[in-house]
Design a protein that fits this description.
single chain, alpha/beta, TIM Barrel, eight-stranded parallel β-barrel, 12 helices, 11 strands, EC 1.-.-.-
């Protein structure tokens, strides 16, 4: 198993300034490399405390690239629906070169109605815009004199500059929430898969992974594919204290997420079937049940090792991204989590 750090801000100006947030997370990114973690990942969201301090993963990861030399950089994820593919492919190719080929590109559809409204894009166009955008980026990275005659974008012939550092292109991953179709499509195309197990029952996650791995194998790809999972993580020397504070930070995160998804109570889209229940799911989230089901990594190092053994037994040797800032943790507590994980968990795993 490999382990990295996922930065998902759940704060706004009333909690801390953007400058302070970036100072703290860049420090943690450098520390993650020093401690032997595999990757740094961040997201693309807008406006709300739920991710709003990260509207452009590329800008943040370029700053990480300038401060590090080994750790991989992951967009988790960029949103093709909100950016023209020539611009998106170009700035990602720049980041791949700046970092010396350390980039993994995760693409996502987005799911917050207010974001689509701001970009004047119908929710029902989310999936076709995603598919068209990802394919256009792939072609721009790997082909010359590219001509695109799509539903949403028409351009060419163009040859992208700069070319990606990695040949033929950076690894591609696809983010999915509850869609089996996304898992199958990612497996067929040979793309990696990114998901958040906390929103599913473990059995449902296993079903999604089975679909992905079967599609991967049926398409003739070697191995079983690449799977990244994101978990909230909080460690302390005393397990009871870790669970007490972990519950507090989890409840803060859920409150911020509940604010962000509230509009789904009155929003419907054929592209997002079942999302009308997402507000209800967030409201009914229970930290104790999440801990029991292995959906959060909270406790002392031995507790977390036991939780990870359960994850490995259910899902195999996946790559795990640790969320060590969600819930507006003090930076010294996030740093303690990373140091304890590196000292006691990484060697054992």
């Amino acid at each position: 198993m490999r382990f990295g750090v996922n930065f998902f801000p759940t704060v706004g100006p009333a909690d801390k300034s953007a400058a302070r947030y970036f100072e703290e997370t860049l420090h943690l990114a450098v520390l993650a490399e020093q401690l032997g973690f595999d990757h740094v990942k961040t997201i693309e969201h807008y406006f709300a405390r739920y991710g709003g301090y990260s509207p452009d993963p590329v800008t943040f990861l370029a700053a990480v690239a300038a401060r590090t030399s080994r750790i991989r950089l992951v967009t988790g994820a960029v949103i093709p629906a909100f950016t023209h593919p020539v611009q998106l492919a170009g700035k990602l190719a720049m980041l791949d070169n700046i970092s010396g080929g350390r980039l993994d590109v995760g693409f996502g559809r987005a799911f917050l109605p207010e974001e689509f409204e701001a970009f004047e894009i119908p929710l029902d166009e989310s999936r076709p815009r995603f598919e068209e955008g990802v394919e256009a980026c792939r072609r721009l990275w790997t082909e010359e004199d590219v001509v695109v005659e799509g539903r949403f974008h028409r351009f060419g012939p163009v040859t992208l500059l700069p070319r990606p550092y990695q040949v033929p292109r950076p690894p591609i991953l696809v983010a999915t929430a509850i869609s089996p179709e996304s898992c199958v499509a990612a497996g067929e195309k040979g793309y990696g898969l990114m998901l958040v197990p906390s929103i599913h029952k473990p059995e449902a996650v296993q079903e999604l992974l089975t679909l992905y791995r079967k599609a991967w194998a049926d398409a003739g790809h070697e191995g079983q594919g690449t799977i990244q999972m994101t978990y909230n993580c909080y460690l302390a020397e005393d397990g009871d204290e870790a669970r007490r504070l972990g519950r507090l930070y989890s409840e803060r995160t859920n409150q911020v997420m509940a604010e962000a998804v509230a509009s789904w109570a009155t929003t419907r889209s054929e592209g997002y079937r079942g999302y009308e229940k997402i507000a209800e799911r967030v409201a009914s989230s229970d930290f104790g049940r999440q801990l029991e089901q292995g959906k959060v990594l909270v406790g002392d190092p031995d507790d977390v090792l036991a939780l990870l053994a359960g994850i490995r037994g259910r899902f195999g040797d996946v790559t795990i991204s640790l969320q060590v800032i969600s819930g507006n943790l003090p930076p010294e507590e996030s740093e303690r989590t990373l140091r304890l994980f590196a000292a006691h968990v990484l060697p054992a795993m």
